[in-house]
Amino acid sequence: MLERGPTTMFRFLPWKSIVKRAARAYGIADPALWLARIRSFAQPSEVAEPIELLRAGVLFHARGIVNTKAIQHNLDWIWPYWVQRQFDPNDVSFIPRAFSFSHVNLTHRNWTAVGLPELSIYPIVDPRGLFTPLQDGWSIDCWIVGDDGRLLAPSRLPDAAVRQELAIDQSNGSGDLAVLTLSRQHGATLKQTARVVIEHDQPVAELQIVATAESAAKLVVALRPYNPEGVQFIDTIDASEPQTGWLVNDKTEVMLSRAAAQMLVSDYAHGDVSSLLHGSTERIGGNHDQPHVACSVGMATAAAVYPIAGETTLTVRVPLQKELAALGNLERFDPRVTWSEARKPVAKLQVPDRKLQFLYDAAVQTMLLLSADEVVPGPYTYRRFWFRDACIMMNSLLAVGMVDRCRRMIEQFPARQLRNGYFRSQEGEWDSNGQVLWFFDRFEQLTGERLSDELLATIPRAVDWIHNKRVMDDADPLHVGLLPAGFSAEHLGPNDHYYWDDFWAEAGLRSAAAIYARRGDQRDADAATAKADDLRRAIDRSIHRIPAWRSLSGIPASPHRRIDAGAVGSLVADYPLQLFAPGAPPIMATVDALLRRCFLHGGFFQDMIHSGVNAYLTLDIAQTLLRAGDPRYRDLVEAVARLASPTGQWPEAIHPQTGGGCMGDGQHGWAAAEWAMMIRSLFVREEADRLVIGSGLFAEWFESDDVLQFGPTLTPWGAVTVTITNPRVEPMLRIEAEWRGALPRLEVSIPGFERIVAADANVDLPLVRDDTMPIAAADDHHARPARHDHARHDHTLAEGSQR
Fold this sequence. Notes:
Region (Disordered): 781-803
Distance between the termini: 65 Å
CATH architecture of the domain at 112-327: Distorted Sandwich
Oligomer: single chain
Helix content: 25-40%
Number of helices: 21
Radius of gyration: 28 Å
Strand content: 15-25%
GO biological process, one term: carbohydrate metabolic process
Strand order of the largest sheet: 6-7-8-9-19-15-14-13-17
Largest sheet: 9 strands, antiparallel
Shape: globular
């Protein structure tokens, strides 16, 4: 007889009745009743909320509750940039806190990671140079304090006083990746350069500091019990002798390149250590000038003080080997691989628009950084694996030439497949099987390689899972034959039968058929195709049954929804899946509805959850427009470029007034992937049996003498590089290709030039201007990106600004 442990026994208790009685006894509303009401907004589903998201949400708001206790009562402290802005009633970022049970960063979720090509941990830098060397850890900040009491604290400075940039140094052998932050005020200048370096074959987070001041002042390096999300506890700090560093929380060393003139410490009861820097001489001395502090609240602070004489330099180093062993992949880490070596296979871009050029280089850098081990969509908040983000990012990595990186990542996929065939990211999301099968096919197409036997073995079970998961016995004709109602993978709304899941499933089944067909396994190929066709018929029936007043001739997020912001998920059928022909009426009706109703400041505003402008979803719509030959794609590309941070990053969602992040990770890998794919599509697009060349190139690029080039990029027919020389005077096109097998049709469709069909590769082709073809913006009858209905002001996002 099996013994039941305490956990098993608790499952059989009448919890609903117990909770209801307890609530009644204490005069609290019955939570079961409220939960039932809440769930009535969604379609019935087998998983209400994935436990992974519940766990992450609890942790997120636990910190938010700590923030409520720590921040608003201590606004005299020097806080991180987002707090200085979000808690300032005179700032556009201000959020009233009255009924907010937790205080979280909703206005400036921006940061930039530094690291190494094969290092799977990511120190981050916020928009004012606050350096967080450990995952979700405490931080290091730098200030300049004048003898006259004036303080240069970057987090408190206006935008005009701070400049930040991403340095991707291609000139030296290593090709360093660094974030530079330059702050100026009152004749003082503070320059901080954050990077990760190798010392004795181990990774070290490094912060180089250069300080100058026109009058007597001191440089301060401070330990801060917070990061860009809020409070992160420091319980103990021990100074080393002779004042050349600290030991934080009894485990992490912080090393200073030279001894400080003075070291100060404080605990929560005595306030921020910053208050000791500009007070009386007597207050600076005393008990605060000691080598150790312990704080029961976890808000210990410390400062190392250096007199500034001319140009004062200092280097702060934090060894990362313990962090790597605890949270990263120690076996995968290879200190010999430099950034220059990692970038060698990557497709190169050359255009006269320096901003677009920089954003492409930064996007590639982000993708490389976030794929050091398993690919993750962010260095901090989203430093975890989802098949959805991984497949999208790997598709971009593959297209720009990172074959080895993608190969080693998909080799880890079989371990994540359950016995029933489900590729599980988190329970209750039904898009992952289609995404994995689709990427398996993309890998074979773009590399010319064949999947390993271990990967092939996952395909039959994955196909069966999709087929068996469909709802075949439901009485509701709107969703019969579709996948079950699920938790929205893309925050499209409450649990529902999302077409996003179904289109991915259809594409996955067709991809499985293609993989089988390449091996001559026609029986399995035909079976997978039959399953795909049957699912597509169910999708089409469902769409056609939606009342016209709800669908507006487009494709809502689900058969039970009207056209709203969630309909953006249905556009996956066009890009990247190409399940519809270019410019198909249902797709374009959906796009036009979104452009009219859901665009703000030129970008797609996602009402669902994100409540911000989404760079990556805007680019997805731009891809659909480009594929349809609609010139409005350019408006969207330029809007996304404007939304980028000074370091070339996009958070998952962008606050429409502050321009800072309001949702998700502050450095979104999916957005970087879509930018790289967008740039590729301007030069090279795949379309069924042909390659479309140059259909998105900007007209003004042909007013420059600079060479236009992109490549080599992988395509299903081989690697291709597109080059246009003498674009202003006598433009000459050359398509350099390394074909494999059957040759594609080549279609040169550069706006403003005569179309060339069936062109030869590896020869020079003169481009002839077509003066009868307008290169102007979209036709008047097309819907233009409109201001969002919810907007109340005409504020625009400052280009390249964090505001």
